[in-house]
């Protein structure tokens, strides 16, 4: 196995508080617990891909504060090559997460060093044909645009998890191989209300392929996901995939990132898109069984071929 998952993206310190319920505007509540963990969509996806059995490199940036070196060490502990993770002056990215007793969450993000990721860092990616490049919306759009172009030039496959949604140029979106969004993000990209139900989501996925990406995965939370593949020989195919219940939901934070990481890992291992989606769903279901994002990924089993 020579192909790598190469994640170019964000890394944060997650400050997570658990509460019985979310506060109303202007209300003060006591939390049940407070923890600080590795986070950021990019770092989460890299950790998940490594747990799923892929060889993973991470390209990003942390600050010179106390959090930066600690996060670098923690990400490496998940089996990720962090030689492309730079340390610079300034603060590390941070996420402030509130988790309710039902496992739902709200998140506020301060970009910190993630906002200073540049296209010049792409040399550290050392992209090769067969690699799978994973991008998100938590680093500057210019860096993503450069990465998409570099991946296309190297013959690598690009997965763009367009979260949060930003105003991506049409030509950049058209050069992406696989687009991953949730239902809200799908609606934002299409400029219409979020799809309701699997049938509408599948229709939205088909419409998203008309923007350029030949494969689309729309995650639907507890309702599972839909996938659409416009590049299949014999004509486009798509389907709804039910959510997998692996046990009681403790914390949904990072479940989507687990799915993206496992999807990328499955593709580097040679699985087709439909089978890769199935592995993504399994990883997402495993990630909700314990608290935290990357901290919960030990439950992700390596993908069997």
UniProtKB/TrEMBL annotation:
GO terms for biological process: D-ribose catabolic process. K(+) binds at residues 251, 253, 287, 290, 292, 296. Activated by a monovalent cation that binds near, but not in, the active site. The most likely occupant of the site in vivo is potassium. Ion binding induces a conformational change that may alter substrate affinity. Substrate binds at residues 12-14, 40-44, 138, 257. Pathway: Carbohydrate metabolism; D-ribose degradation; D-ribose 5-phosphate from beta-D-ribopyranose: step 2/2. GO terms for molecular function: ATP binding; metal ion binding; ribokinase activity. The keyword Protease does not apply. Belongs to the carbohydrate kinase pfkB family. Homodimer. This is Ribokinase. It comes from Actinomyces glycerinitolerans.
